[in-house]
TrEMBL record:
GO cellular component, one term: cytosol
Name of this protein: Methylenetetrahydrofolate--tRNA-(uracil-5-)-methyltransferase TrmFO
Class of this enzyme: transferase
Listed EC numbers: 2.1.1.74
Binding annotation for FAD: 9-14
Gene3D superfamilies in the record: FAD/NAD(P)-binding domain (3.50.50.60)
The species this protein was found in: Marinovum algicola
Catalytic reaction list: uridine(54) in tRNA + (6R)-5,10-methylene-5,6,7,8-tetrahydrofolate + NADH + H(+) = 5-methyluridine(54) in tRNA + (6S)-5,6,7,8-tetrahydrofolate + NAD(+); uridine(54) in tRNA + (6R)-5,10-methylene-5,6,7,8-tetrahydrofolate + NADPH + H(+) = 5-methyluridine(54) in tRNA + (6S)-5,6,7,8-tetrahydrofolate + NADP(+)
Pfam families: GIDA
Main location group: cytoplasm
Protein role: NAD-binding protein involved in the addition of a carboxymethylaminomethyl (cmnm) group at the wobble position (U34) of certain tRNAs, forming tRNA-cmnm(5)s(2)U34.
Length: 450
């Protein structure tokens, strides 16, 4: 076997795809344009750099679809999850990581493999020969994006995604803020105090909403429109949808008690999550924004406890490129018009670090099996991986296709279980039990084929 697997993009999906294929014995070349060609959101040339949040979200593999995806990736010896576990930060029931050491570790692990090499430079055309995986994510370069659009005939491949600000911990007023995870969730004291909370009374909240609505926003270029993914709406867009929207979203005050005023229930609460192992940086949870920088500092300093806040990074907005995968990709994630090319990660229409890495895991294994001439069992639809890939390669409605997080709504029903809220706990446990069994069977079948 001499054929190489070329992977364009060294983010979550590309890194995981490279790892999986290399572990199966395939020679891999990762093409990464950074740092030669920079992007708006990235700061380094490291592989698997985290640009938006530092959270992989819930780690509950019995009651949460994201946590189940974590479990499946760990079971498949995934690089991204193993590295995340090594650099884990307190985050209640979530899996948050120290982002810089995480990316450095992923980069070192891949470069240490004898059958992996990294070539730095931009790929601007879709290759006609060889086996390729395009995993360029939401920040696909303009040249490659145009090449993809020309091949697929897609009229639009972009919507807009926003980045949350990061605050220096030492600039937060702890006489007003306090540490507590919602509902004191977590097994250790550190986990139960993983979030920093800033309370607002009604008057402060109303003034904050007024300021959000009046703030200067980033303008779009001619011909561009804002089509946001609902799971990552800028806070000012949420405020435009109704004055109470934020109070029932990222600023909900439930499950928290202010030790400074234990008898006073906050009208709204802004939460910040630790962003590095040292605890010197905190990101404002759910506060993606397209406000201009000057407006951001003024508005965000209206939050009690953040009056003197200093920002390590202000929020921003960037283009997010994705395919209409249900019409363009086959069940093996290959481009129907050019089956030597697979796509993986956010560009396929999944949303989130975990989902992106998961699709990279599958693409890497699929490409390796094809190169090695081995039979590949169909990914079981009842697994979290299978539910997600089935959705993007045919299960979704093509006319209304939008990026999707993994969720139990993508899973086939389990016969004999109640619907509705009351039956949810038993239903979710049944989903995860069934998924784990199906995934283990699939991994076993792959090992037998080898």
């Amino acid at each position: 076997m001499t054929q190489e697997l070329h992977i364009v993009g060294g983010g979550m999906a590309g890194s995981e795809a490279a790892w999986q294929a290399a572990q199966l014995g395939v020679n891999v070349v990762i093409h990464e344009m950074r740092p030669k060609v920079e992007t708006f959101a990235h700061r380094t040339g490291n592989l698997a750099e985290m640009v938006c949040s530092n959270s992989f979200r819930s780690d509950d593999d019995e009651q949460n679809a994201v946590g189940l995806l974590h479990w499946e990736m760990r079971a498949a010896d995934g690089l991204i999850m193993a590295t995340a576990d090594r650099h884990r930060l307190p985050a209640g029931g979530a899996l948050a990581v120290d982002r810089d050491p995480f990316a450095e570790d992923v980069t070192a692990a891949l470069k240490a493999l004898p059958n992996v090499r990294v070539e730095y430079g931009e790929i601007t055309e879709l290759p006609r020969d060889g086996q390729w995986i395009i995993a360029t994510g939401p920040l696909t370069s303009s040249a490659l994006g145009q090449a993809i659009a020309a091949e697929t005939g897609a009229d639009a491949l972009a919507f807009f995604d926003a980045i949350a600000p990061i605050v220096y911990a030492e600039s937060i007023d702890m006489s007003k803020a306090w540490m507590q995870s919602r509902y004191d969730k977590g097994e250790t004291e550190e986990e139960r105090k993983a979030y920093l909370n800033c309370p607002m009374d009604r008057a402060q909240y109303e003034a904050f909403i007024d300021a959000l609505l009046a703030a200067d926003k980033t303008e779009f270029h001619d011909g561009e429109t804002a089509g946001y993914f609902d799971g990552c709406l800028p806070i000012e867009v949420m405020a435009e949808r109704g004055r109470e929207t934020l109070r029932h979203g990222p600023m909900k005050p439930v499950g928290l008690t202010n030790p400074h005023q234990p008898d006073v229930k906050a009208h709204a609460v802004v939460q910040l999550r630790r962003d590095n192992a040292l605890g010197t940086l905190y990101n404002i949870v759910g506060f993606q924004t397209k406000m201009k920088y000057g407006a951001q500092t003024e508005v965000l300093r209206m939050i009690p406890g953040l009056e003197e806040a200093r920002f390590a990074r202000l929020g921003g907005i960037h283009r997010n490129t994705f395919l209409n995968s249900p019409t363009l990709l086959d069940a093996q994630m290959r481009l129907k018009s050019r089956p030597n090319i697979r796509f993986a990660g956010q560009i396929t229409g999944v949303e989130g670090y975990v989902e992106s890495a998961a699709m990279g895991l599958l693409a890497g294994r699929m490409a390796a099996a094809e190169i090695l001439g081995r039979p590949l069992p169909e990914v079981p639809q009842d697994s979290a991986m299978g539910a997600l890939i089935h959705h993007i390669t045919g299960g979704a409605e093509a006319k209304t296709f939008q990026p999707m997080n993994v969720n139990f709504g993508l899973f086939r029903p389990v016969d004999g279980l109640k619907g509705g809220r009351r039956g949810r706990k038993d239903r979710y446990k049944a989903y995860t039990d069934r998924a784990k069994a199906a995934w283990q069977d699939w991994l076993g079948a792959m090992a037998s084929a080898a």
